[in-house]
Amino acid sequence: LRIEIIAVGSELLTSHYLDTNSLYITGRLNELGLEVSFKTVVGDDQETLLVALQNSLARSNLIFIMGGLGPTDDDRTREALARVLGRPIVLDRRLLENIRAWFRRRKIRMSPANKRQAYLIDGAQSLDNKNGTAPGQWLETGSHRIVLLPGPPHELKPMFQESIQPRLERFRRSYLVRRVLKTTGLGESRLEDMIQDLYPKSRDLKVTLLASPGQVEIHIASASERSMSAADIKAERLEKKFLSRLGDRVFSISGEDLESVAGRLLRGEKKTLAIAESCTGGYLGHRLTNVPGSSDYFLGGILAYGNRAKIELLGVPEAVIRKYGAVSPRTAAAMAEGVRMKMSSDIGLSITGIAGPSGGTPRKPVGLVYIALASDLGTDVSRNLFWGKREAIKFQSSQKALDMLRRYLLAEENSPSKKPAEKK
Amino acid sequence: LRIEIIAVGSELLTSHYLDTNSLYITGRLNELGLEVSFKTVVGDDQETLLVALQNSLARSNLIFIMGGLGPTDDDRTREALARVLGRPIVLDRRLLENIRAWFRRRKIRMSPANKRQAYLIDGAQSLDNKNGTAPGQWLETGSHRIVLLPGPPHELKPMFQESIQPRLERFRRSYLVRRVLKTTGLGESRLEDMIQDLYPKSRDLKVTLLASPGQVEIHIASASERSMSAADIKAERLEKKFLSRLGDRVFSISGEDLESVAGRLLRGEKKTLAIAESCTGGYLGHRLTNVPGSSDYFLGGILAYGNRAKIELLGVPEAVIRKYGAVSPRTAAAMAEGVRMKMSSDIGLSITGIAGPSGGTPRKPVGLVYIALASDLGTDVSRNLFWGKREAIKFQSSQKALDMLRRYLLAEENSPSKKPAEKK
Questions:
Q1: Which positions in chain B touch A284 (Cβ < 8 Å)?
Q2: What residues are paired with A64 via a beta bridge?
Q3: How many angstroms separate the Cα of B47 from the Cα of each of A53, A286, B60, B65, B79?
Q4: Any alpha helices (H) in A200-358, and if so which ranges?
């Protein structure tokens, strides 16, 4: 089986748009143990579309063609494919009635052009479109399976799930299970050094690292020819090895973001949080409040961007800033303690640093960031040297702050002072 | 001239990665009046790579091939292309010396595998790579121009600029000038209604709208067969028509973001800003501080996520919240006035609303957001009903707040109370 995905649309040949549907289709195919051999993008122009289809039919035998099924003159995928296959297109009365009903339900006048969407390539089965008027088509010839899909993702995805996946089941080669372990606090190469000896040798168990500054994800793909549960067992065995090696450097095995993990722990421990941000300018608060329901534990914070705000709103002693500077462990600690007191929260979290591009000195370079966590156990301060551009430094700073919060809450959760009755 | 871009690399056939290099190359080609007809993605597998190259040579005559020029066994683009063309690959001693020197300069041991990068397809010209060891290649045959480029963007882009663009100059069909007008405050269809009658009929002047909730961009692409300045004149004439129709709904004609525009005006008017955020949770501050140098005018702010923070840190009267609610024009006004006073800023800007997904009621639905601006001229409040998911509502809220700030500062700039001597 040689698989090809073709995206049709002149906008995909400009410098503005990329075809992202193919990522979705590839993911679903991989779950069946199938891999894509070619991806093609071609415009609405008939001549080049015909050439692309001819080439694909010659080199691939399972072909997904997306886009160009709309009602306008630009939408010629149906006609082009019919011509290349040497088959007529035929009006399907049931389809026409469906399209008419679609417009009636929405009380919109149907344009005569929409009638074109009721034509099927001779021999094709039509595939229902719940979110639009362009039906998909599934066509089997002696040597080929060809699928026509609408371009808009919210039409394509449900159609793929409901009508295509069941039809692909008989091509299944294996069962695929994916696991994602998210880590923070280690760079890609250090993480790789720590776990490389655990990498599996077998072809049906693959490990991929996806790294960005402040976060490295370990993707496990486990395939089994026998069953989903066989794949699952292998994935879980490997995941356990990684977890015991990496310990609490892994903050999520379920896809959760760090802000959600921290939020879940705050909720579980019934703790409230207030924050004081300098160089991140609100980014930490933004991430915390991206989690629905965060108002249960996040009280708010103070953006102390200038020194006066640090002194007047957070109560950082002027002498501390004068002697040690706004970017210093003392100032970070005073900010965290100050916001905790001001807002009567259980935990105060602060960030102060130099996000660049200017403002750095040899002793305090761009990327130097102090982060402090204040609680009834006292105040912890971390010194960090982050890298990259302004936004990368802001992200790494917020990531480290959330991770300090997570570690503090994990320690609370496991604290021996808690009565067993309190544990779930 | 039929143009094709081929991206080689098995990672581009997974569900993780997209080829983005082709957007860059397409942009540069468009500037020469050239359009791309096909894009192909193929893996490292020799058999499919050979097929893809054969098809491309048969259907296109200017072909860009990216990736697969590295030193490892997976990198077989050179060999595959040589085979399809029926040409030998030959060792280039000068190239080999360059690669050796590259490693010497960096004091890294050169692996024997890197020698493979010194081979050229017979007849090809090598293209310097300033940021890596894989040289590019430019090959002209009777019917084809074929370009081999390294995959990493930081190697590809400088090579394209320095070695490819000059070689493409002789294929230039026209001169292209682009202009981008950024607007906020109008949806895509309302904006289109306002300017549609100005859309040019000519093929060499194109208008495209790129819309997202809270921002619509008008892209003008103007081509001239004669000269850059002829294209520029046409673009400017159309831009002026759009500007006089849309007025201050256009906030940027230079690519600037709204936060940069607002920041530039604050700096020009020598005004300082403090903010009070509720439902945006720090996102407005994050955007303001993404602009380097924002500490010159942005003093900081208060994230008053909970009601207690609104009352205690911003001085919003408890009675106002009890009577009108936290999401109300009165609370918004009190927040903006409160933060302006607390931080002694010229301007106070506040946001309070319901970002969802929960928390909405029939009278106060998800997406209802009040935004207030307080200054020595008094306090303005706007009522907004935004749509979409939590993050889209946060973006639209910050966008509207920045736009109110921009309009206030524009009015200040044009205020008759200013002495002419103060104007530049």
A1: 282
A2: A5, A147
A3: 20, 49, 20, 16, 12
A4: 228-246, 258-269, 283-289, 307-312, 318-324, 329-342
State residue B418's pLDDT score. 58
Q: Is A391 on the interface with B (CB under 8 A)?
A: yes
For B290-315, the pLDDT digits (tens) are 999 999 999 999 999 989 999 999 99
> What single DSSP character describes residue A336?
H
What integer pLDDT is reported at residue A72 of this predicted model?
79
From chain A, pick out residues whose CB is under 8 angstroms from the CB of B339: none
Q: Supply A298's token pair.
A: 């996040």
HEC per residue, chain B: CCEEEEEECHHHHCCCCCCCHHHHHHHHHHHCCCCEEEEEEECCCHHHHHHHHHHHHHHCCEEEEECCCCCCCCCCHHHHHHHHHCCCEEECHHHHHHHHHHHHHCCCCCCHHHHHHHEEECCCEEECCCCCCCCEEEEECCCCEEEEECCCHHHHHHHHHHHHHHHHHHHCCCEEEEEEEEECCCCHHHHHHHHHHHCCCCCCEEEEEEEECCEEEEEEEEEECCCHHHHHHHHHHHHHHHHHHHHHHEEECCCCCHHHHHHHHHHHHCCCEEEEECCCCCHHHHHHCCCCCHHHCEEEEEECCCHHHHHHCCCCCHHHHHHHCCCCHHHHHHHHHHHHHHHCCCEEEEEEECCCCCCCCCCCCCCEEEEEEEECCEEEEEEEECCCCHHHHHHHHHHHHHHHHHHHHHHHHCCCCCCHHHCC
Phi, psi of A321 (to 5 degrees): -65, -40
Cβ distance of B358 and A18 shorter than 8 Å: no
pTM: 0.87
Whole-number Å distance between alpha carbons of A344 and A300: 11
pLDDT bracket for residue A417 (50, 70, 90): low
At a CB cut-off of 8 Å and minimum separation 6, what does B417 contact?
Answer: none
Residues B26, A12: C-beta atoms closer than 8 Å = no
Least CA distance to A274: which residue of chain B? B303
Per DSSP, the three-state class of A55 is helix
Is it true that the peptide bond before B357 is cis, omega within 30 degrees of 0? Answer: yes
**A281 near B CB under 8 A:** yes
Contacts of B169 (CB under 8 A, 6+ apart): B32
CA distance A19 to A39: 10
A73-106 burial: b if 16+ Cβ within 10 Å, else e: eebbbbbbbbbbbebebeebeebbebbeebeeee
Cα angle B291-B292-B295, degrees, rounded to a multiple of 5: 90
Closest residue by Cα to residue A278 from A223, A217, A327: A327
Which residues numbered 208-237 in A keep a CB inside 8 Å of some CB on B? 208, 210, 219
pLDDT tens-digit readout, A320-364: 999 999 999 999 999 999 999 999 999 999 999 999 899 899 999
Choose the closest CB to B300 out of A292, A305, A391: A305
CB contact under 8 A, A313 and B294: no
The pLDDT tens digits for B363-389 are 999 999 999 999 999 999 999 999 999
Spatial neighbors of A239 by CB under 8 A, at least 6 apart, are A179, A181, A220, A253
pLDDT beyond 60 at A420: no
Residues A396 and A389: their CA atoms lie apart, in Å, by 11
Predicted pLDDT at B417:
67
Angle, in degrees to the nearest 10, between helices A258-269 and A390-413? 30
Flag whether pLDDT at B419 surpasses 80: no
Pull the structure tokens for residue A264.
Answer: 């879940």
pLDDT exceeds 90 at position B34: yes
User: How far A25 CA lies from chain B's nearest CA (Å)?
Assistant: 8
